[in-house]
Every structure is written in C-alpha cells, then in structure tokens.
Design brief:
With 233 residues, the chain is of the alpha/beta class. Helices cover 41% and strands 9% of the residues. It contains 9 helices and 5 strands; from the N terminus they run ααβαββαβαβαααα. It has a 5-stranded parallel β-sheet with strand order 2-3-4-1-5, with helices on one face. Helix 4 links the parallel strand 3 and strand 4. Helix 6 runs parallel beside helix 8.
C-alpha cells in the first residue's frame, strides 16, 4: 500500500537500497588514499552548503562505500534513484537525513525534486552519489537541474597503485577467495588501472572458479579475463 505519512516509502522494500555485502561497507573496511582524500574530507564536514553534497566518480572508486559509511553515521535512509516511481495521490517521503545512490539517473525526477524540497524544509542533510557531476548530467525538470547544479560537489578518482594493490586483496577477501601471491601480483600488473576493472575481474574469477570447482590460477585468469587483460601478458 502507498503511504503518505512521513517516513514511509512507496513501497519500502523496492525503494530502500539493498547494499551488496553491506557488512563490508564499514569505516574499518574502507581503504583511504589520495584518490579519495577530497571526498572523505567533504563527507566528514559537519555542514554543507544548503545541506546537500554530490559525490561523483568512476565505478569502483568507493562512492557507495562512502555513502554507506555516511548513512550509518548519520542514521540516513538510503535509496536508489533508479527505483523512483510516481504513484497517483501519494509520493515518497523520507524522515531524517537522506542518501541517494545513482542520483544521476533517477527513474522519476519529480520524486527526486520532492525529496530535496522536503529535506530542505526540514533542514535535513542529503548526500547524493553518481558517476557524473550535475553539470554533466541531463535533467528534464529545470527546477531539479538548477537545484543540483547549485549543489556542492566532490569526487573520487581512479585508485593509485598502492590503493589498487590493497583493493584487489580486499575484494578477494570479501568473497573468501584464496589466491596465491604470484597470481595476485600478476593480476595487479596486467589488469587495467581502474577500480571497475578490479571489481569486474574478481567477480568473474569467483564465478568461474565456483562453476568449475577449481582454484584461481594464472591460466584460469588468462582465459576468463581475456577481454579485460592488457595485451602484454
């Protein structure tokens, strides 16, 4: 049923974001580095202009992790903008601070505008996350576009070498995968230098090893990750 009362969702089980392996998205598990230092500093502030902040950056650079950390600390409701729907006679309302993932691709812009207006009227904070900044995102509603383009922004960058090495080991550990150091060193050298490539590679290796019932070896990686690996192997 659709609810009009503040604090209810439409419907809650569809709109509240289910963070994959949310137990891993903690402060203790986050890997800090120069590429996310600016974002961490902004998120740690006690006040943002108009109480809104937009965090953007490439996939696999820790944006959702930062969003989850902030939401936990500030008791914020986490929603996925791709799941926004408009219902006749009622609309989504959230009580308290709000964290919006995939804010650059809302399924319904009216819902997103109402959420921002509600948060502003109640002096609540809103953290939004997307792959692109508002200035490079097309919004159909002029009011929403102008509101977001006036929002303070910060960004994460592609991980530096030290962070990439630690991230690879962390991703493997999250999936409880045991991989020898020669193989992890080889993967680190030959995978593209992006966070997204590391996430995709570990996911594909996990699926292949599980399906075949074999350990993760260099030979398996060369076969499974042929489209990802650099040519000089």
């Amino acid at each position: 049923m659709v609810e009009q009362e503040i604090g209810k969702t439409i419907p809650a089980e569809q709109l509240v974001l289910g963070l994959q392996r949310s137990s891993a998205l903690t402060v203790e598990r986050f890997i800090p580095g120069p590429s996310n230092a600016a974002a961490r500093a902004w998120i740690a502030r006690s006040h943002w202009p108009d109480q809104r902040l937009w965090l953007w950056g490439p996939s696999g650079t820790g944006k959702t992790h930062l969003l989850s950390m902030w939401a936990t600390k500030h008791n914020a409701t986490v929603v996925d903008a791709r799941l926004f729907v408009r219902s006749p006679g009622a609309r989504l309302q959230v009580q308290g601070n709000l964290a919006i993932d995939n804010a650059d691709s809302p399924a319904d812009e009216v819902t997103m505008l109402h959420l921002l207006n509600d948060a502003h009227s109640h002096a609540e904070r809103v953290l939004m996350v997307g792959r692109l900044p508002p200035s490079r995102t097309h919004f159909m509603l002029p009011d929403l576009a102008s509101r977001l383009r006036a929002t303070a922004t910060t960004a994460t960058g592609e991980p530096e070498d030290a962070l990439r090495a630690t991230l690879l080991l962390s991703l493997l550990a999250d999936r409880q995968l045991v991989v020898s150091q020669p193989v992890t060193d080889w993967l680190w050298r030959h995978l593209p230098r992006t966070g997204k490539a590391l996430v995709c590679a570990v996911e594909q290796l996990d699926q292949a090893a599980l399906a075949r019932g074999v350990p993760i070896t260099r030979a398996l990686a060369q076969e499974v990750l042929a489209d990802l690996l650099t040519s000089d192997i």
